[in-house]
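Isocitrate/isopropylmalate dehydrogenase family protein: structure, please.
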Amino acid sequence: MAKHTIVLIPGDGIGPEVTFAAKRVLEAAGLSADWVELPAGASALEQGFENVLPERTLAAIRAHKIALKGPVTTPVGKGFQSVNVQLRKKLNLYAAVRPVQNMPGIKTRFENVDIVVVRENTEGLYSGIENEIIPGVVTSLKVATEVACTRIARYAFEYAVRRNRKKVTVFHKANIMKLTDGMFIKASRKVAEEEFPQIGYDEVIIDAGCMKLVQDPSKFDILLMENLYGDLMSDLCAGLVGGLGVVPGSNIGEDTAVFEAVHGSAPDIAGKGVANPLAVIMSGVMMLRHMGEMATADKVRTAYREVLAEGTTLTRDLGGTAGTDQFADAIIKKLG
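Here you go.
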């Protein structure tokens, strides 16, 4: 295995606990890496940096092209701008990819869920263009460009080809948002028809799509959507298989990628050693595949699925009593 240099962003709250547990698992599986540990989020301010996303952290990711990131704190309705939004925009990480699958040993209302949410990551309402016109009147601008719409559509279809997926479904609201969402489905339709005729394609108005998802999620394959819809739907889909603690996340750019747990920083349990590191471990598996370390990725995936199936060493969010390190140790033991 080649040696890699990876930026490690522990994050806030439970972030350091779960990211270091994931790091132990990945190294036990055979990953050879130099880790460049740097802060982001509230922890960056605590360490004396002037902002929540230090230029040193950005520069390291640009230089090394890959990062594994823990959860960071984002204030609601006040305070600093979301670190995640800043990271995606400044590094042009245009594709958020979240695979959602049923996991062994985790019972949910649904079976045979195998969905990948592909979300445009840089535009839409998350462009952050908000203005107070007069006191009590605020506008928020939704931004869409043909370049970005086409780019994310092409990524979704290329992903389908690489992973032998069968269909891409666009969730949209073009019946109301005729220009922005209209541009999105027009670009998606063009890519589907002209470049990927072998992949199935359809379009669903998002409110009807939500209903269809909770009726029978097994009918969906890849879901493609703009930024806000993708944020909402990726969490909804996670709920179909057990929640944010059992799904990974990645943010992909042209030559840079950041892999992250998509759950929160859970400050109420920080430092107690009880957080579930599985989402970061799963994100680490996505990172391994991105780096071309397929055998190591398969090894880790097989190990954590065996631990889940046995059900004897689970964290409390999964119905067990194990702590963060106990769960990681159980996976490492399965690695042999």
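Notes: Residues 8 and 37 are 5 Å apart (CA to CA).
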